[in-house]
Amino acid sequence: NEYKSYLRISFEYLKKSEYSMESEIGRIHYRYNQCFQDTFEPLLQFAVELEENFTLEHKGEYCIYNHTNFVMLGEPVYPWVKDHIPVPLDLSKNYDAVKQGVRTRSNDTTYFDFSLQWIKDYNTEADGSIIKKFDPKDYDIIVKKGALRSLGTTLTDFSGDDWVLLGCKYEGTIYLTDLKMEDQSSWIARASRYGSFEKNTTELKDSDYAQLPEDFEEGHFYDFSSITFGDDLKILVRGELDARNEDGEFFEFKTSFYPGVSRMKFKTEKLAPAWLQAILSGCKWLKMGYYYKGDNHMIRKIEDLELSQDGREWAFFDKRRDAYCDGKVMLGFIKNVLKKVKNDLEDGEMYRIVYKGKKGYDRKNLHFAKTQGDFLPDWYKEFIRELYESTSKQ
To answer: How many CA atoms does the CB half-sphere of 288 hold within 13 Å?
Structure first.
């Protein structure tokens, strides 16, 4: 009965959020009636401090412009932080346009496919021939940064947003993405607010436009980062980079209510997730725009926060574990869950990881389920076959 209830929620969510049942993600949910074998793992058993080295290296960039168009970038192109930002800053002027873009992106499952498009284009010559310059097999897991954010902040977000991670293993590499199971209206509102904040406080230069298509109007710039946890886990993370300054330092942009007496809530629900997103992209700075509750479109204060490597700025004592929770614990938690995925999945298998915290359901457990199949588009699987066939002939 519990499983059937989950299915009903899944299908209703897909209808409300306008996912096509013919989409790749939609087909995964359609196949959920094929006897997934569920297991339950205590969430906190994975929350062990990271002891190994955490290293990051940038690998490449691409841009999604005018909402749906893909272009690979030979040189990094990122917005620049404006020298002067007036305060108060009214976000309502372009909020609706930003919100429409966020809604389009949130309901478009092809956004994970763009990551795969970068891998294909990187290995494809101008004449269409395929030469292996980037090997997916060099990585245990290729993953969206948003999926790691959902996973890591499970330790700190006590309001308990629901999430689902979907993973599949194909030709030796695991591909991991996320699917939001919560009502998306609140997420869209948050993303639209800090997207509008970013749009009002950054700009592109003439030299940047020279590398972009002529019909470019607006875009989002994505980076691939190679992240290594010690010697036993290597992942490729795709995430959006918000902006940089004249010194070449990267910024993550967020908006927040004034902390006031809710300092603990600010640290766990705002600062910790922002820290994780920044650290997974090699960002050194967080630019935070503050608003008063009830006046969400008017930024009253802007603050630049230099981020530590261990998350000490948001660390707190976790009574559930009877120990402090900080960046090392969050990264250790992510690493340990990913290692379980790596160790459990075989080629041709698909994994689903579910967390249902918002409804107060099993807050102390992660739900793992495995079945046969994958969610990769056919064109990408054909490319991978050609990639390794061409390598074997060389």
So the answer is: 22
Q: For residue 122, what are its two tokens?
A: 């990187």
Closest by CA position to 219, among listed 32, 26, 69, 376: 69
What tokens were used for 147?
Answer: 């999926």
- Taking residues 8-18, report their average pLDDT: 46
Indicate the residue type of 26: G
Q: Tell me: pLDDT of 184 over 60.
A: yes
At residue 152, φ and ψ (nearest 5 deg) are -65, -40
- Tell me which residue has tokens 């966020």: 102
Q: What's the count of helices (H) and strands (E) in the chain, helices before strands?
A: 11, 20
Strands 163-170 and 69-73: unpaired
Mean pLDDT across the chain: 83
- CA distances for 85 relative to 112, 198, 289, 382, angstroms: 33, 11, 11, 48
Cβ count within 10 A of residue 304: 11
**394 CB-contact burial (10 Å; exposed 0-12 / middle 13-18 / buried 19+):** exposed
Whether residue 162 is predicted with pLDDT greater than 50 in this model: the reply is yes
- Global pTM reads 0.87
What would the two tokens of residue 36 be?
A: 């997934």
Residue 368 and residue 366: Cα distance in Å, rounded?
6
* pLDDT for 302 beyond 70: yes
- Both tokens of 259, joined, read 């902390």
Report which residue type is found at 265: K
Q: What pLDDT is recorded for position 358? A: 60
The rounded Cα 243 to chain-centroid distance in angstroms is: 17
207: left (phi over 0), alpha (psi -120 to 50) or beta: alpha
DSSP H or E stretch at residue 365: strand 365-372
The string of DSSP letters for 298-325 reads EE-EEEEEEPPSS-TTT-EEETTTTEEE
pLDDT at residue number 28: 44
Amino acid at 318: D
